[in-house]
Amino acid sequence: MTNPADAGLLVLRCAIAAVCLAHGFNHIAGGGKIAGTGRWFSSLGMNPGIVHAWVASLTEIASGLSLGLGFLTVLGAAGLLGTMLVAWVTNHARNGFFIFRPGEGYEYVMTLSACAVALAGTGPGRWSVDHALGLFDPPGWAWFAAACGAGAGGAAVLLALCWRPPVRGSQLWVDDLIIRMADDRIAALERRVRALEDQLAIGQLIATYGPAVDSESAEAVGELWSADGVYDPGGVTPYAGRAAVGGLVYGERHQGYLEAGCAHVLSAPRVSVNGDVAVAVNHSRVYLKDGPHWRLERVSANRWELERIDGTWQVIRRTNRLLDGTPEARRLLTPPGR
After folding, report:
1. C-alpha radius of gyration, the chain, whole number
2. d(CA 70, CA 264)
3. Dist. CA 179–CA 170, nearest whole Å
4. 154-190 pLDDT tens trace
5. Count of C-beta atoms within a 10 Å radius of residue 190
6. How many other β-carbons are positioned within 10 Å of the β-carbon of residue 144?
């Protein structure tokens, strides 16, 4: 028969599991990823850093799953205890109690260590896989001692064999600061800025097309394309090369548009960049002056294929189709990457 203690243990286990899983996956995929975590471990004196980064991250994930499910709970508690004790000794103990102190104090690892010891003693409760299977239910003094001993003993052996604390004030500590703040954060920021710059440059390129054709600027139109770029408007032979693409403004149809008064209006593109190639999709509309008003002449779907050539984005191919209900036109608007 269950009681409030079982509900309390379930809440405690799930909270601890969420913390362990978040930290484990963040060490692997967040910030500087597992390589950055490895460099940080090396700066703490845990060598080889990349090995300990994987061991700690996978132990946190495994312990989180174990405690969250209440499966092999004493082993999950031992893994969590050992991981927290190593972190306590190598990084947090010297920084005082509070987590907000520079370098992060030990209140966080102390709390999780206490939770691990508590669960090793109480077990996961009736709402758990262990209870359903009759494992360690209840844990008993022997399993409690084994879990605490394995956690603390494993941490002690690992520290004795692998931890060589750096001398405070040494260049290694300076390198750690540079790596953690400059390498990880600035590198991530640079990636984001480059992505924004690429999307802005491609958006500006596409936005240039309308004013260029409406002002009869053949050279400006042609320069948007690569030397052998193609514009396929549908219904006619595709224009190939800058001269041909730019020359379309002198065509009979376009000249008629210009004489009547026209505007080529393009929507903001949806852009996907992959290194030095990119794909963008958008709508385009052509308005013609009709007496005192302007009327919508045509609405089209566009797919732009682009490449960075000599540091500048250029159109490799533009495909344009009237949105007349045909599947081909609709497919052009499929968001890039899907």
Report:
1. 32
2. 64
3. 15
4. 788 888 887 887 655 445 555 565 666 666 778 788 8
5. 10
6. 20
